[in-house]
Amino acid sequence: MKLFTATAILFSLIELLPAEVETSKPPNLIIIISDNQPAWAMGCAGNKIISTPHLDRLAAESVRFQNAFVTTPICSASRASILTGMYRRRHGFTFNTDPLQANLAAISYPALLRENGYRTALIGKFGIESNGEIMVEDEDQSLKLMFDDFDNFEHWGKSGPKGYFVTDSNGGKKHLTDVTADKANAFLKQRSKSDQPFCLTLCFNAPHAQDDDPRQYIWPVRFDEYYSESTIPTPRNSDHNFFKRQPNFLQNSLGRERWRWRFNTPKKFQRMMKGMYRMVSGVDDAVGRLRDQLQKLDLSENTIIIYSSDNGMFFGERGLSDCWLLYEESIRVPLIIFDPRTKAKSQRGKVRQEMVLNLDLAPTILEFAGVKNKPPMDGRSFKGLLSGNTKNAWREDFLCEHLFEHKKIPKSEGVRSKDWKYIRYFEQDPIYEEFYDLKNDPHERDNLSKDANYLEKLNSMRQRCDKLLMDIRKGVKHR
Q1: Which residues in the chain show pLDDT less than 50?
Q2: pTM of structure
């Protein structure tokens, strides 16, 4: 009878434990970053045409953030922010700048994980590059601090194949997405023989367009028939009248030039969009293969998977293509967090609405790994949000910025809050401002910056932008 009572008490205590029980064994981590994938390019995000069954299943077993953003919508700067948890103005890196500083590489999440006993690897697009060259100060030493295994290759850089099809030693060709998946699975097989925890940063080049190829979007051949019977809807804000309402510096920007490459006829739009969808389906298939490999190797129960993208993309919205600008299309990204250790069914398939940033990935990853001595970062761990812990106030807004020196891409900075968006093109003469009521105008159609009825709110957003910029320069962290 006493044994029965003790057992009953034990089970009662177990039931009182939090839903997320972390064992003493550190989790493995896989951070998957696609390239230029908009937040809406997944079935789980509401897209009724695109086929992403593996990402949809992952989301159904995970927490998905509906409002995930990058603070700088260009791959090089965004990837530096992902690694360091810092704003572009803090880490200082984008295309054609000085290299990422060695002291920042040393406090990136891979370097800190490695310092704390993890085996760290990067496979795919590193992205801290310019003109095909890796741009990290004291390159050899910095990369050794960050990664035990570093297999960097891009679809057009000096560090990888020319184009999306890779020729093997026997003369056969395989799509770069599949090559990336093969390498990831080989890494997992190797790590399954060790008790050392690992962190794999897995970066697909897809669905980035191949800019120097007239086809632009190039997919694995097995997806040739995907979407052949579908009609991709014309995006919002893509009509010519809307385009003509924009300032001349946007009408004559590189985004408009690339729109002519890809979307300037309905037939071309359909061909390009179906190509992009097929590339995403290729990444989705790779994610499925990865999860199968984790299961086969008995790694699935202790491996956290994070899925996101380096930035969004314009696909004809506003009459533009590519990213760079601070509108929703280019700063919104997918974000799925899968933690198999979480047992509560209420946390599976959960969609959260908090604004989380690419800056938040590094501190979140470090908290998952139990790293105690974390350096100051602009981002904040959102690990608590996964279990519904909202006792600490979450951010109400964030700074967004684009500072790349390019004569056809205007620089901009601004603030995105829950209900408002402020953008200023600060190098235009005079400064050109945009102000949107996101609650009533989520597609940013009506610029209210000249409307006297909104002057007070506009002034408060101007001041907020100035304050965020000043605090970033001083290293003040915002919650």
Answers
A1: 1-22
A2: 0.93
